[in-house]
Amino acid sequence: MYQYDQIDQRIVDERVAQYADQVRRRLSGELSEEEFRPLRLQNGLYMQRHAYMHRIAIPYGNLRSDQLRMLATIAREHDRGYGHFSTRTNIQFNWVELEETPEILRKLASVQMHAIQTSGNCIRNITADQFAGVAPDEQVDPRPWAEVLRQWSTFHPEFAWLPRKFKIAVNGSAEDRAAVQVHDLGVYLKKNAQGEVVMDILAGGGLGRTPIVGAIIKRDLPWQHLLTYCEAVLRVYNRYGRRDNMYKARIKILVKALSPEKFSKQVEEEWQHLKDGPSTLTQEEVDRVSKFFAPPVYEKLADTDASYEKHLIDSKPFARWVERNVRPHKVPGYAAVTLSLKQRHIAPGDATDQQMDDVAALADEFSFGEIRVSHEQNLILANVKKRDLHTVWERAKALGFATANIGLLTDIIACPGGDFCSLANAKSIPIALAIQDRFNDLDYVHDLGDLSLNISGCINACGHHHVGNIGILGVDKDGSEWYQVTLGGEQSSGATGAHLGKVIGPSFSAEEMPDVIAQVIDTFVDNRIEGERFIETFGRIGMAPFKERVYASRQAHA
Fold it and tell me: Which residues of the chain, if any, have pLDDT below 50?
């Protein structure tokens, strides 16, 4: 993982000191809330419904064990004993006191972490594949390139006040596990016929009020030009993006208004002023960053292990966990483990201070002291020996992180919703918990196969509901909380890419939602061909059978 040098550390320490003085002036009354607001937002501090929320950056979802322990300490000493891992691979503390936030940032700085650019109209935390560096289908490790982008974008003076927030995702594998197509700017890394790293650049994706799947605007960009080309994209957006209407200020609106072709042409023209300029990457710089992501010292192991194979035969629960929560690794004898933060009766993405400490201990013992965070709000141990998998499973069970549901119906993505967020129209967490309660038979859920269910409490779509096979959106209806259901979304579908879900019809009350989802699932079960996934059945039979059944059932219970 990347390690700060003296310059990095000084920058972060100076920001902490600056922020501490700003908080002092706010508490003394020297700064009004209106004056303080942009300052706190630059340091990831939001005012929520009940308290301040502090959002901490986890760059491209990578954590060291000492960093996770520090997050546990912050949860214990400055919050209510837990944190919430978000779909941006950040962590949020929902109950912090303003006067304690400088100390939170000091503690973060001591382990090379910060909250810079986790809010505001700037380039936000850059995300990547949670299996980067270990995935068998990977052509190029995205982490060095994400780190290059992070360093370039942090405190970039030209892009500190964009028309709206700006999100970047980087992927280097055949499968898009980073949801690149629904980001403002996406980078697909690959190798050309000569074995050189090149990039396809995507722009104009995003969810929220106007969901749009992004378009490729540049193919086969040589790696040397990553920063200059991204700078050209941002300059065009900064110049022409709308500032008169925040609902039309995202880059996706500009790309759609111009067309991807015309936007690409404008970027190309701007790029001619930047190409081969000071931001051009050199091999020396890429090598400098890449050395931090060199593979750990793996043991030379056979790809099979007798004790592991025996446990698979002897223990059905362990075998099921391996099937759902363990992924292949590019190094023989190793595997990548996903720890499910979707335990029943617990808000998706939440982890207590003790759980974070215990996961850090697992990482030290079994995965080279490294933890990953996925945008599905789970934690990953990316380098576990197969012979250790049974022990890791037993330890994860004790933590409550061994639910064998990764990629299944109850692996729900959900934003904090109306329980915390001041922007939310409706609560997300109670809906997620009610659905988990309704589908608490893991055998049945397992038989349903791959199926994503995503919940957002408002149109900002922090829960990525548009790209869930089943999406749920909280809406306000005459001052009451209601829920709109979409079907057919998918974050990635091979060559055909991402798909946005379609609204099934009029919204539902909170009390109706478990029954609505049950009717959707029953329709799938009744119509699927053996081995068919939900998204495949939906693609084959369309919306009509689902809609007919859901609303017929609603009418019958009216």
Answer: none
